[in-house]
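Appendix B. Raw example, untouched.
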Amino acid sequence: MKFLLVFDFDHTIIDENSDTWIVKCAPEKKLPNELRNCYRPGHWTEYMGKVFAYLGDNGVKEDEMKRTMTTIPFTVGMVDLLGFIGKNKEFFDCIIISDSNTVFIDWILKAADFHKVFDEVFTNPAAFTSTGYLTVQNFHTHRCAKCPKNLCKRKALKEFLDKQLEQGVSYTQIVYIGDGGNDLCPVTFLKKDDTAMPRQGYTLEKKISQLSQDLSPIECSVLVWSSGVEIMSYLKLLLK
């Protein structure tokens, strides 16, 4: 009996968007209008590349970025939840699929000593150049019309499950915990024994309820959460 827990990162594990939080490092803690206005829908990673270049041009160094990023608060109850999962790893495999980047997620999880809770993190690869600039790339290429150019979370989840199956690992249930519009695509992939846990009041919850109104409800069960403690209560029920 093994369960797979799939987490989004921004506004799910942490209570902020890591990509917009980094702007605190910018001069006057804001971006110039021409940079802000150059974002094109579906091309967020490309836009963040420009933001990181701007920070580099303004002499913002790695250690300052790291200090800033590790002040992001965790979502209410999430510290308890991750502690609980860490103590019960024999029952739970745990992955993150996120539109953030490897550097930010790594910093935040390691600073709080939660990196061991997660088996794998699927997110946009980022790295510092020899001149100290942070760069970021798209996670993969895909053909999904519903998802942003850099990441289809459904594809990332499906490839992980296929790889696990090849190694003889299958899951009693998948629990998907997220908040955003880009979490809908993987949620529609879940089967009837699985559970989607959208964060209360966020886009994913609204999109799931819209599907029910359009009479094309998703197959899996849906449990709304507002605190990590509610997710923990559900996981404790599973273990019974």
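End of appendix B.
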